[in-house]
Design goal:
Elements (H helix, E strand, L loop, with lengths): L1 E2 L7 E8 L6 H4 E11 L2 H8 L8 H24 L6 H10 L5 E5 L2 H14 L3 E5 L7 H5 L4 E4 L17 H8 L3 E4 L11 H10 L4 H7 L2 H7 L16 E4 L10 E6 L2 E3 L4
Parallel strand pairs: 3-4, 4-5, 5-6, 6-7
Antiparallel strand pairs: 1-2, 2-3, 8-9, 9-10
Helix pairs in contact: 3-4, 3-5, 8-9
C-alpha cells in the first residue's frame, strides 16, 4: 500500500510504499520515497479559505504550485553553481524535476485534471492522477498525456461538488483509450477491506472481470512504479499473493491465507 500525506496543502510532501507485514516501517518499505503528493481542488481551497489565506481559488492553487516549481528550478541551478545552501524542501522537489520520483496529484474535477496535465507539460515531470473522478468526461485528453489514474473512492456517497459526477464508467472510458487504471478505496474514506467489493461493483457496471482483477493487482503495481516486483506471479517476482475459498470477487468467498515474499503471514489481530 502507498501511504500519502493528506490533501490540505497544495504540496503535501513525500510518500512511501510498504508491504503490510512487519512492525518497523523501515523494513516494510519497498519504495521510499515513492512520490511527491500535491492536491488541487476543494481541499486546499477549503482549508486555506477558512483562514482567509491563499489559496482561496483554483487559480491560487495553480499559482502556488507554479511558484514552487520555478523556485525549485532556481534552487537546482544555484546548488549546481555552489551559490546556495542545502534546503530540504527544495531537495525533495528536485527529485521530481529530475524524474527520480513522480508527482502523485489529488484531482477530482475535469478542470483540475486539465490544469494538472498542463503543468505536467510545462515542467516536464512524471505524473499519476489520484481520484480522477471526472476523467471520463475528458478521457481522450487524459489519454494524450501518458499518465496512470487511480480511480476512486467510487463507492463513497456524492457528498461534495467534486464527486457529483463520479461513476464506475470512469474506469471503462479510460481503459478504452489505453490509460492504465487502478482502483482505490482512498482508505479510510472507504475501508480497504472493501477494495474487492469496489472491483466487483465495477464489473457489475460493465468493466471486464479480467480488467477489474488487473486494476487491483498488476495495473495497481504499474501505477506505483513497481510492476517489476509485485502485481502478478512470475519467476523473479516477490511472490506476494492471497488464497481464497472461491473467486475473490464472489461475495461469499473467504480469505484463507496471505503470503508475502513467499512466506505465509499470520494475522496479528
Amino acid at each position: 500500500m502507498q501511504v500519502l500525506p493528506g490533501s490540505a496543502n497544495v504540496i503535501g510532501g513525500e510518500m512511501c510504499t510498504v508491504k503490510t507485514s512487519g512492525s518497523i516501517a523501515d523494513h516494510m518499505a519497498i519504495a521510499a520515497p515513492s512520490g511527491m503528493k500535491a492536491a488541487f481542488g476543494e481541499n486546499p481551497k477549503r482549508v486555506y479559505g477558512s483562514r482567509t489565506k491563499k489559496p482561496i481559488t483554483r487559480m491560487g492553487i495553480a499559482s502556488i504550485f507554479r511558484e514552487e516549481m520555478y523556485r525549485t528550478k532556481e534552487y537546482m541551478e544555484k546548488r549546481k553553481a555552489g551559490t546556495t545552501d542545502f534546503k530540504l524542501g527544495y531537495e525533495q522537489l528536485a527529485k521530481v524535476l529530475r524524474k527520480e520520483i513522480p508527482f502523485r496529484i489529488h484531482a477530482h474535477r475535469a478542470d483540475d485534471i486539465v490544469t494538472v496535465l498542463r503543468l505536467k507539460k510545462e515542467f516536464d515531470f512524471d505524473l499519476t492522477l489520484e481520484h480522477g473522478t471526472e476523467a471520463h468526461l475528458i478521457a481522450d485528453h487524459v489519454a494524450m498525456h501518458d499518465v496512470s489514474v487511480s480511480v476512486g473512492p467510487t463507492m463513497s456517497p456524492k457528498s461534495k461538488i467534486e464527486t457529483s459526477q463520479k461513476s464506475w464508467h470512469t474506469l471503462m472510458e479510460l481503459e478504452m483509450r489505453g490509460v492504465n487504471i487502478a482502483i482505490t478505496t482512498d482508505h479510510p474514506v472507504i475501508a480497504i477491506e472493501h477494495l474487492l467489493v469496489s472491483a466487483s461493483k465495477a464489473i457489475t457496471a460493465g468493466l471486464s472481470e479480467k480488467t477489474a482483477m488487473k486494476a487491483v493487482t498488476s495495473n495497481a503495481a504499474k501505477h506505483l512504479g513497481l510492476e517489476n516486483r509485485i502485481g502478478h506471479l512470475a519467476s523473479g517476482m516477490d511472490a506476494d499473493f492471497a488464497i481464497w475459498t472461491d473467486h475473490p470477487f464472489h461475495y461469499a468467498s473467504t480469505h484463507l491465507s496471505t503470503w508475502i515474499n513467499g512466506e505465509k503471514i499470520e494475522p496479528t489481530v
